[in-house]
Design brief:
Blueprint: H1 3-14, H2 16-36, H3 39-51, H4 69-77, E1 85-89, H5 95-102, E2 106-111, H6 114-127, E3 131-135, E4 143-146, E5 152-154, E6 163-166, H7 177-189, E7 195-198, H8 212-220, E8 227-230, E9 234-237, H9 241-250, E10 254-259, E11 269-273, H10 275-283
Bound molecules: S-adenosylmethionine.
S-adenosylmethionine binds next to helix 3 and helix 5.
Length: 287
């Protein structure tokens, strides 16, 4: 091996110090953001980052159109047959909303990023799909906004929905356990049927013990175990099955079906309902 080749190899290897430094910086940024950023700042970051993602923008050629395999599963297993009214939250540009409308459901869908909500409303108008697209976030339920004129829309003044879903992993963007419980309760209050929630879940393997730095940060700030941040999707929380069950119970709801299958692109989800509705669903279950 020639001397110059060895020198080039050493120089390439030396650049991994930059990767190491970046990983440390990224972890430190995530700790600081999850500990100290305000709810408003995290919500604004969410709208900024999702609003710029073409896969969620119904105007863009990269817009992701189809339902995932696990969404097909729960629509078949727990949703009432179409035609019925469905509420979709965290809807992005309307991926689930347009697919459900295409299957005969009458859909109301909302999304906090104004850019994505507008793209969904534009597509609904242009395609004539049965999708009513609104602006809003879980924290403001049951009140949402008309994306065109800003008019306040109170969903309690409409007929209850026959089923509802918190769009793909959007539940995990809710800041803390109190707010997640409130979102579940408010969704269920609007729904005379199942409410399906998908989320980021903790890996099945026991997580490594938190570092001493992380333990200090957990004590100093607003961090809870499972809180995370990436520049790509902003704040998110990894929920364990037990934590989801506790939040569902604290919202006064019952789990009617759940799946923690993560094979072949499946995603964890639970279907929950108010107790009387859960009893009715159990009596008429197709499973
Ligand atoms: C992974 S994207 C999914 C978008 C769409 N459901 C899809 O699958 O194409 C998560 C969505 O949740 C929305 N979201 C984040 N925080 C939310 C909140 N507090 N209330 C409602 N939606 C929220 C984001 O703006 C984003 O559009």
């Amino acid at each position: 091996m020639s001397g110059p080749s060895r020198l080039v190899a050493r120089m390439i290897k030396a650049t991994t110090a930059i990767d190491w430094a970046y990983r440390r910086f990224d972890r430190m940024r995530a700790l600081l953001v999850t500990a100290y950023a305000s709810d408003e700042a995290l919500a604004a970051y969410n709208d900024l980052t999702y609003g710029a993602a073409p896969v969620y923008d119904a105007h863009a050629s990269q817009f992701r159109e189809r339902l995932f395999n696990w969404e097909e599963d729960f629509v078949a297993r727990v949703f009432p047959a179409a035609p019925s009214r469905v509420l979709v939250g965290g809807a992005g540009g309307g991926r689930e909303a347009f697919q459900l409308a295409g299957r005969g459901y009458d859909v109301t869908a909302f999304e906090p990023s104004p850019h994505l909500a507008r793209s969904m409303a534009d597509r609904a108008r242009a395609s004539g799909a049965a999708v009513s697209a609104l602006l809003g976030r879980y924290e403001s339920l049951p009140v949402l906004q008309d994306i065109g004129n800003g008019e306040r829309i109170d969903l309690t003044l409409t007929r209850p929905f026959d089923a509802s879903m918190l769009g793909w992993s959007s539940f995990s963007h809710i800041r803390d356990t109190r707010t997640r419980i409130a979102a579940l309760r408010r969704f269920a209050a609007l729904t005379d049927g199942p409410v399906v929630v998908s989320f980021f879940s903790t890996p099945p393997a026991k997580p490594a013990a938190p570092s001493s730095l992380r333990r200090v940060m957990n004590r100093l700030g607003r961090r809870s175990d499972g809180d995370a941040f990436t520049v790509h999707i902003g704040f998110y929380h990894l929920s364990s099955p037990g934590e989801v069950a506790r939040e569902v119970a604290a919202a006064g709801l019952q789990i009617v079906m759940e799946s923690y299958d993560d094979s072949d692109g499946h995603w964890p989800w639970v279907a929950v309902a108010r107790p009387q509705i859960a009893a009715r669903l159990a009596a008429t279950s197709r499973d």
